[in-house]
Amino acid sequence: MGRRRTSRWLVPVRMVAFDLLGPLLTYSILRGQGVSAVGALIVAASFPTAGVMLGALQDRRLDALGLTVLVGTLAGAVGRR
Known about the structure:
By secondary structure, the chain is mostly helical. The chain has helices spanning 10-32, 37-44, 46-59, 64-80. It has one domain. Helix 1 packs antiparallel against helix 2.
């Protein structure tokens, strides 16, 4: 059995949804509801996190840059608390 490959169009769609639109909309909505900037950023980071995890499951490999950003986000969130 060969390695499964993700469709060419699925990668950019996933990138726009999880890395751009999801976080921007979430941050904007939460800030509009009075959530602190740090709290809104932490919640908004769940979209790129989900994107990294989904990519790892579909492609059966980790995105090194995505994982690095995820670790940095988690470290920053823990450091702010």
